[in-house]
Amino acid sequence: MTKIIVDSTCDLPEDLIKKYDIRVLPLIVSINGKEFLDKVSIKVDEVYEAMRKGICPKTSQPNPLDAYNLFKECIEKGEDFIFLSFSSKLSGTYQTVYGVVEDLKKQYKEIKMEVIDTKSGSLATGLIALQASKLLQAGRNFESVVNAIKKMIEHIEHVFTIADLTWLIRGGRLSKSQGIIGNMLDIKPILHVNDGIMEVIQKVRGKKKALKTILDIVEKRIRNFPNQIIGITHADDIDTAKELQSMIESRIEGAKVIVSKIGSVLGSHLGIGGVGVFFFNDKIESYMD
C-alpha cells in the first residue's frame, strides 16, 4: 500500500483529505512569539482572526522530528509513501523532508519512499494529491503514480490576486512606498507561479477588473482541457470565491469547481481577501474525474 503525504500548505478541502486518507505534515506558525503546528494546534480561522487584529504571523518549515515520526509511522505499517512538498523556491520544506527521507532510505530499503517538489502550493498541490490518490485507489503502482505526478507538475497552473498590499509590505515582499501607492490607487496585482516562483503578470485597478482578468487568463490557459476539476481558494473571503466560481462555471463548459480556504502559511504572507484559481493547462494521460 502507498500513502500520499502533503505538507500543511496544501489546501485540499478536509473532506477530500479524509476520503482519500491523505496524511498532512504541519508547518509552524508563530503568533506573538508562540509557536503552533499549522492545522493541528491552531486552526486556520484563528490565524485569520489574529491577522484582523493587526498581528502579522510568522511561519517556518516543519520540524524534522515531526517529519521523521510521520514517516516512521508509515514504515512501521509497511506502507510505501510519496511526499508532495510545497515549492522548494518558496520554502525550505522540501530540503528538510528530503534529508529526513534519505536517512530513512538507508535504514529501510524494503520501503519505497519518494519526496517530490511540486513547485506548487495551496490547492495546486491539492489537485495533484487528489489525482495521485485516485490513481492509487484505481490500482496504479508506485512508479506509475510518481511518473504521473511529475507530469502533472509540468501542467499545473496558479492564477491569483491579492486584495490588500499591506501584508506584502509587512512580510518584506514589497516596499512601503509601493504598497501605499498601490492601495491608494486600488491596484490589484495578478500573479501566477512559474517554475515554483510567484510572479506578477499584470496589475489592474479594482476588484471587479481583477476577477475578470483572472477569468480571462484561466479561460485562455485551460482551453485544451476545460472538462476538469478546478480549484478556487480564498483568504477568508468566501463571497469573492463564490462570485469567481459563478463566473467560471458560466464561461467554462464542463468545469467542476471545488472551493477551499487558503491555509495559515500562505494566508499569513498574502493577506486577507486574496483569491486564486488552480487547474491543469493540458489533459494528463492518467487524469481521473
Word description of this protein:
A hairpin with a 2-residue loop joins β9 and β10 (197-205). By secondary structure, this protein is α/β, with parallel strands linked by helices. It has 2 domains: 2-155, Rossmann fold, CATH 3.40.50; 156-280, Hypothetical Protein Tm841, Chain: A,domain 3. The chain has 11 helices and 13 strands. The mean pLDDT is 93.
CATH topology of the largest domain: Rossmann fold
Q: How many β-strand stretches?
A: 13
What is the CA-atom radius of gyration, in angstroms? 19 Å
Count, helices: 11
Number of domains: 2
Rough shape? globular
* Major β-sheet annotation: 6 strands, mixed
Low-confidence stretches: none
Structural class: alpha/beta
Beta content comes to 25-35%
Q: What is the terminal separation in angstroms?
A: 22 Å
Give the helices and strands, then pairings.
Blueprint: E1 2-7, H1 14-19, E2 23-25, E3 28-31, E4 34-37, H2 44-52, E5 58-60, H3 64-76, E6 80-86, H4 93-107, E7 113-120, H5 122-137, H6 142-155, E8 156-161, H7 166-170, H8 176-184, E9 187-194, E10 197-205, H9 207-221, E11 229-234, H10 238-251, E12 256-261, H11 264-270, E13 275-280
Parallel strand pairs: 1-2, 1-6, 6-7, 11-12
Antiparallel strand pairs: 3-4, 3-5, 8-9, 8-13, 9-10, 11-13
